[in-house]
Amino acid sequence: MAIHSILCSPFNLILSICVLFSCCFGLCYTYDQLGYNTFTVSSFSYPQTTLRPFDLRYIRVDLPSWFSSLSISLISDVDLDAASLRKTPESALPIICFRDGSPPLPDVSNTSLKDLVLVPISNYSFGGIHAFQKVEQCFPMQKNIAMKFTNEQISPGAWYFGLFNGIGRTRTQSKMIVRGQTYAFSANITVEGCTIPTMWGQYCNQTVDPLSCVPSAGNISVAESYNQTSKNVVSCKNSLETSCLGDGEQKVYSLEVMGVAEELTIMAMNIRLNVTATNNSGNFIGVNLMCFVRHGAIPSAALYDNSSNISKGPLSIRSPKVGRWYIAILPVNISKELGGTQNSNTKVCYSMESQVLECPIGKAGANCTWERFVLQTVLRRGSSPFESYYLPVSEKVFSKSANFPLEPLLSNSSYGKKPDDIWTYFLLEIPRGAAGGNIHIRLTSDTEINYEVYARFGGLPSIDVWDYFYANSTRSSDGSMFFILNNSSKEKVDFYILYVREGIWGFGLRQLNTSSGASKDEIIMSISLERCPQSCSSHGECRLAFDASGLTSYSFCACDRRHGGFDCGIEIVSHQGHIWQSFCLIASNAAAVLPAFWALRQKFMDFWLSFMAVVSTFVYLATIDEVFKRAIHTAVAILTALMAATKATRSSNIIIVIAIGALGLLIGWLIELMTKYRSCSFSIGFDFNMRNRWQTLKVWVQNLIKTLFRRFRWMFVLAGFTTLAFAAISWKLETSESYWVWHSLWHVSIYTSSFFFLCSKANIVNSENQSLPNGNYELTRQNSRDEEVRGN
Q1: Are strands 56-63 and 157-165 parallel, antiparallel or unpaired?
Q2: How far apart are CA 357 and CA 368, in angstroms?
Q3: 482 — alpha (psi -120 to 50), left (phi > 0) or beta?
Q4: What is the residue-wise DSSP string for 25-38?
Q5: What are φ and ψ of residue 99, in 5° steps?
Q6: How far is it, in rounded angstroms, from Cα 564 to Cα 678?
Q7: What per-residue confidence (pLDDT) applies to 365?
Q8: 694: three-class secondary structure by DSSP
Q9: Which terminus of the chain is more exposed, N or C, with fewer CB under 10 A?
Q10: Residue 306 to residues 234, 264, 294: CA-CA distances in angstroms?
């Protein structure tokens, strides 16, 4: 695959509509070698973007139900081989992560960090893509990444790609300085679709027969001694009453589960061969008609959600997810049933029918006797986008806050008369664009809570089928990378589901110990969609951002200097350690007393900013008129102020400041030389005697060397450059973790070097207009009065 520059302009939604509109008129068809056609649903280029240390970028890609493939090409300047990857700490490791439905979070838990795959990315890496749809996968960044996913590997919907320059608990920690490798990347993402809706596969060369679904004329009644209810049955059939397949020949069907259902049943009837067998009596019970079922994508014998030999009995799926299901029928061992005879004309014929069983509105469970409530979204006033809480739509409770009593809503019947098998269900919907939010579940009571909480995306959970659950302090999904407990106890259930997927979520409360006379104290429940978990644990600030497409908002914590982690709940620096670090950083500035005292004694008092301390020292060493010094100080003050206001902590600043100071010293010397040795200029007089010219130049150089030796105390100069070199080394060795050590040493060394340079200037009597200083500090006002007297 060719590598292109990549993805997602801010106008991708409008662009997608335009491209799709043009494709509907046949303007963007492309044909493969087999004669089948596809068209480009969307193609986006993401311009070159820089990732500084601990930066991240999210990219969202929407895959329609008719997509055929997703192609991704990414170019970066990352140059890390396998050996370097193993040596690189996680805080400096550039990685790319993929997740279905919501943004990835590679460092939210220790489990996710342990699962990090430090191998190059390739299409082979995604061969076992089944687990890819349930958890995120992360890989180290490479210079060139080219991948292609087909609709046989991934399902339609929203997919997210995250690029991280460093992960771990310190990623969200506030730092005095941020140093490390900066990376740049660009990307291109293309989504291809099938022009014919009934075609499928990477090349749109597989036929998918949609099943037509209609409500059945009658309902299935379920009678109990205490209740009687009925299930709504939706029957789905193929347009052809009979289908015939050869040995190993596969046929694929699709059906839509439109709402929350209790059961999906797939049956094969009238199974027979299309020819009369000659080696048996016509008993074809041994023929296997395998059925593979998968939600969102075409199943195969190696990749499916459910499977069964439907020639032996129906395949039943409890609580099927809402959305499109694909059913693959595959005959097996036809030749074996015919006594080993190979006949290409022999086929298995059958009639296939599916049924979707639905409970009446407000009911759920195998016998439709459990309560089911739809939760209504209530937006919080003055909050971030999508922040809301959910209240049940029912006349049984009324609440004006985010909390509602649970007791009036509970089911009072069990399935199979099992006292520990009573469920109450709640349904809510996460809106489009809110995948960067977090669901917060709370149950509180004055006594022990005898409920287990189960959560599932796209359908109702059960004891066997769930995405997340909480039973007690020892049994929960706490090991999941997207599940966080929040001080749960016997009297309180409190947890978060992080970065939830958009769409329908089902929550089930399983009541325990109903036969043991458990307490009936009031239980208060709340379900809300929040931004940062636990408000960043009161150790940080919750911030809002958007992905590259602008279609999804996500929140993250910017922690203080002592804490880190996704929710700022991890203490990185103790309170005592923070005090010690602050003391070192502040106390080390006491080294400025030495050069400040010297400057005071020498009537040299300018702006003592961190940069000006170095520059002013160099300018002081130049013996030029005070008018020129003030001009240089003014220009340098403006320049260093701009440097401090933009990127004060970058490493190049130390070089720039030293260069500015050296340039000021050089300019001062040039001014002095031009003034003092103007008589030696060749432009005024030119001596044609070569010997005299060389003699004059020799005397001038000797005088210059003598002047330099007389003007400076060279031991102090050497000490000044030594401490200045140590300051540069301290600056270079500063990291986020060791900042307080090396920056304290930087304070000491930079001020000490300034002190040595100030002491290096010798007191010289200028016979023309200078006298030896008396060493006493005279106020400027007194000097001004003396000048006025002399002027009069």
Answers
A1: antiparallel
A2: 10
A3: alpha
A4: TTSSEEE-TTS-EE
A5: -155, 145
A6: 65
A7: 86
A8: helix
A9: C
A10: 20, 11, 7
Indicate the DSSP class of residue 307. E
Contact (Cβ atoms closer than 8 angstroms) between residue 219 and residue 233: yes
Instruction: Check whether 468 has a pLDDT greater than 60.
Output: yes
- Nearest CA to 324 among 261, 267, 265, 257? 257
**Cα–Cα dist 20/16, whole Å:** 6
Give yes or no for a contact between 654 and 731, defined as CB atoms under 8 angstroms apart.
Answer: yes
Q: Is the pLDDT of residue 279 over 60?
A: no
**In b/e form, how buried is each residue of 114-145, taking b as 16+ CB within 10 angstroms?**
eebeeeebeeeebeebeebbeebbbbbbbeeb
CA 272, CA 717: separation in Å to the nearest integer?
Answer: 102
Q: How far apart are CA 676 and CA 767, in angstroms?
A: 13
> Do residues 301 and 330 lie in contact, with contact meaning Cβ atoms separated by under 8 Å?
yes
Q: How many residues are given for the chain?
A: 792
% of the chain residues with pLDDT over 90: 34
* pLDDT of the residue at 505: 96
Is residue 717 helix, strand or coil? helix
Closest CA to 159 of 72, 95, 101, 96: 101
E strand or H helix that includes residue 629: helix 626-647
CA distance 51 to 694: 59
Place 112 in a pLDDT band, splitting at 50, 70 and 90: low
C-alpha dihedral sign at 705, 711, 714, 718: negative
Using one digit for the tens of pLDDT, what is the confidence trace for 712-762? Answer: 788 888 898 898 888 888 878 888 778 778 888 888 888 888 788 778 777
Give the dihedral of Cα atoms 84, 88, 93, 94; nearest 10 deg.
-20
At 223 the three-state DSSP class reads strand
Composition of the chain by helix, strand, coil, percent to 5: 30, 30, 40
Closest residue by Cα to residue 569 from 492, 483, 486: 486
237 forms beta bridges with 212, 353
Predicted confidence at residue 680, as pLDDT, reads 47
Whole-number Å distance between alpha carbons of 324 and 198: 13
Helices (H), 108-208: 110-114
Please write the tens of the pLDDT for every residue from 23-68.
Answer: 333 334 444 444 457 889 999 999 999 999 999 999 999 999 889 9
pLDDT tops 70 at residue 776: no
CA proximity to 419, closest of 515, 293, 534, 311:
515
Q: How many helices (H) and strands (E) does the chain have?
A: 13, 38
Per-residue pLDDT, 747: 81
Do 122 and 210 meet the contact criterion of CB atoms below 8 Å apart? no
Phi, psi angles (nearest 5°) of residue 337 = -70, -25
CA distance 552 to 151: 23
Residue in the block written with tokens 């023309």: 768
Quick count: other Cβ atoms within 10 Å of Cβ 397?
A: 16
The model's pTM is 0.73
Q: What gap in Å lies between CA 267 and CA 263, rounded to an integer? A: 13
